[in-house]
Sequence to fold (294 residues):
Amino acid sequence: MPAARNTNLTMSEELNFLPSITGSFAQPAAENPTVEMVEAAYRHHGLHFRYLNTEVTPENLAAAVAGARAMNWVGFNCSIPHKIAVIEHLDGLGESATVIGAVNCVVRRDGQYIGENTDGKGFLKSLQEIIDPTGKRIVMFGAGGAARAIGVECSLAGASHLTIVNRGEARGHKLTTLLNDQTSAKAVFEKWDGDYTIPENTDVVINATSIGLADAEARLALNVDSLKENMVVADVIPNPPRTQLIRDAEAKGCRVLDGLGMLVNQGITGIEYWTGTTADGAVMRARLEELFGG
Ligand code: NDP
Fold:
């Protein structure tokens, strides 16, 4: 049962009109449902916290972080396009953010803002509910912030081989080098040029690009017939969760993982960092499913 908030205003010693503030800096921000999911958890657990979804331009990022400090925010998420740029405004980085080179969750510890990365951990946790990545071969589309986080965490969790398929060569090579240098997985880069055919010995296929965000019809350049029923197919896109890739993979008999699982799991870790409470993921997912119709 959610803890009830006191509504008896005569008990003045319990009155506290100053919630702890958390939130998000991103551009665009309107498509991001995190605020609904996090506030559902705050309400459910009776936490005197708020989460403010704000749109912050790259030019205003420094001022936004300074504002958060001035207002004593407990922490905040960073999303597109601030995950790397925010680092220079912070006081330090946690371990995964250091390896990944990107921050999606900032936590105030002893008055200092420390950057963490919960994207990859959130993805890994939902993947592990379906398949153990140890020794598995992964094909991942994308080489941006989300792909870096997922690639690092899957490799550290024991995936044996990653093929990074990306449109831009520089980012693709950079991620491949990072994985080969920092983890024991073998990573190779393939330039994404036309419809990609998934090799038959692939265990897990991941879309870590932004293709499909706010567009249920958007297609990855992919030979859909190369998706086989023994493959797990995961999409990072949370909005809408039933992307074209997820629907194609289901039609081919694959086990699928939508972007909501990753969103909920990285949210649980963020809330734990900020409040010390382990939030109920079912409550968070239920709120998202209510919004997106399951
Ligand atoms: P980035 O901007 O860092 O990276 C975007 C990636 O998508 C790049 O690899 C880019 O390729 C590729 N891409 C974009 N458009 C195209 C296109 N038309 N054709 C081919 N490739 C394309 O973004 P992030 O990595 O931070 O985020 C990616 C997605 O992940 C977002 O949509 C976000 O919503 C989602 N996400 C979901 C989370 C969740 O919890 N479910 C958490 C974090 C992110 P190139 O290098 O060639 O430009």
In short: The chain has two domains: 20-117+262-291, 120-257. The mean pLDDT is 94. The radius of gyration is 20 Å. Residues 120-257 form a domain with the Rossmann fold fold (CATH 3.40.50.720).
